[in-house]
Amino acid sequence: MATPTTSKLPKDFIWGFATAAFQIEGSWDVDGRGKSIWDDFAKTPGKTQDGKNGDVATDSYRLWKEDIALLASYGVKTYRFSISWSRIIPLGGRDDPVNQKGIEYYSNFIDELIRNGITPFVTLYHWDLPQALHDRYGGWLNKEEIVQDYTHYARVCFEAFGDRVKHWLTLNEPWCVAILGYGRGVFAPGHSSDRTRSAEGDSSTEPWIVGRSLILAHAHAVKAYREEFKPKQKGQIGITLNGDWAMPYDDNQENVDAAQHALDFAIGWFADPVYLGFYPPYMREVLGDRLADITEEEWKVVKGSSDFYGMNTYTTNLCRAGGDDEFQGLVDYTFTRPDGTQLGTQAHCAWLQDYPEGFRALLNYLYKRYKLPIYVTENGFAVKDENFIPRDQALADTDRVNYFRGTTASLLAAINEDGVDVRAYFPWSLLDNFEWADGYVTRFGVTYVDYETQERHPKESAKFLVKVRLWVDKRILVELIAS
Ligand code: PNW
């Protein structure tokens, strides 16, 4: 095991837990909320693993004070949550009415956080597009409309909450929105070329069109914030991208190249435009004209449109050249090493294994390439079969503790040994919650939720993370992480 090192975090390092509105709130028809695309999608037979939906979730719309008390009991100083667009503007559009009850709800929520000494870190869009916009003009497929409507919604939020919110995330994981929603068709709105899965969609074009809308919507909201709100509100704003480390399967040059190609499609698609002002050349090579063009005028708004690098990361993929999966940049992913061993501990979801070295490598890669402070806005693990064992056993979540032991050690090493400027770390998630297409089968929480009673029970991982944060707060030796 690694020898203990003196590991410190910057004094104002942000350490909190993360959630998202649709995954926790429930109360789908309360206080004037409009539907989001996830409401009906989750209720369509076959779309979620357990056939369940977000109608109740962790009931957090009602239990918001309990959730804040839980955060306070963990001694957390920051909370990342998302605002539901269709609670603020039920029909979503720039000419549609604003719902005062929705504004009040989040306003009270923010006040209560602040009363508890917790800084709000707000995501404006975590996948819950107002259904009305999808029905009206195709949602993210319609650049002209969605960019204006999203920017308007963002303005309404800056106006209502910006006096107290100083940390904004425009969009959560645009890759997931575009690829999983309009390519693979496993997330709302479920578009895909696969007609056994979906009556609508063209997986060869729609994801790239949607991707451009997302980039532009983000960029225009940031422009509005910087020009109209930032001078007075003085907050920070940026996008948060998903992205896992890509490691060559072996040292064959084609596999070394494949790992970079994987990063270009998974991360560079959004990060290169936003931070560098161009699409990765490899994407153009593979997609040709299907990679939706961004005009000269648009590039001016896009380039430099994030104050920091927002990073959600979970795992590492071993990359081999070949295969026909365009969404992975024609790269084949595996967790099995050439010698037949597994990269790390398998999670409940097929796409996740524990490999903390990859977390450190990714931090280094992103800092070197994009040269901005990094906010880790999600990082977490779903213990295999946790949903199918008695609660007492689930609370002893050793695999998750080991995961966080590894990633927090990597975090400290990246900061202290590699000099990477990391400013925030948010484990996903505060609570077990609605895990999208997995329903409630896959649990990512550091807090166990009993869905019969809605009781919350801290898992060992919550206690572990609270301990790490305390040590780090005191800026003392973090020996236990390394032992
Ligand atoms: C993220 N993949 O989603 C989201 O931001 C969260 O809402 C979600 O609960 C969390 O990670 C855990 O899944 C992802 O297939 C969904 O690689 C799927 C993938 C990655 C991230």
UniProtKB/TrEMBL annotation:
Uppermost EC category: hydrolase
Active-site residues, record numbering mapped to chain: 378
UniProt keywords, alphabetically: Carbohydrate metabolism, Cellulose degradation, Glycosidase, Hydrolase, Polysaccharide degradation
Chain segments annotated as coiled-coil in the UniProt record: none
EC number: 3.2.1.21
PROSITE patterns (UniProt xref): GLYCOSYL_HYDROL_F1_1, GLYCOSYL_HYDROL_F1_2
Reaction(s) catalysed (UniProt annotation): Hydrolysis of terminal, non-reducing beta-D-glucosyl residues with release of beta-D-glucose
Segments crossing the lipid bilayer: none
Record InterPro entries: GH (IPR017853), GH_1_N_CS (IPR033132), Glyco_hydro_1 (IPR001360), Glyco_hydro_1_AS (IPR018120)
GO terms (BP aspect): cellulose catabolic process
GO molecular function, one term: cellobiose glucosidase activity
Function of the molecule: Plays an important role in cellulose degradation. Shows hydrolytic activity against several glycosidic compounds.
PANTHER family: GLYCOSYL HYDROLASE (PTHR10353), LP05116P (PTHR10353:SF36)
Family: Belongs to the glycosyl hydrolase 1 family.
Protein name: beta-glucosidase
Organism of this sequence: Macrolepiota fuliginosa MF-IS2
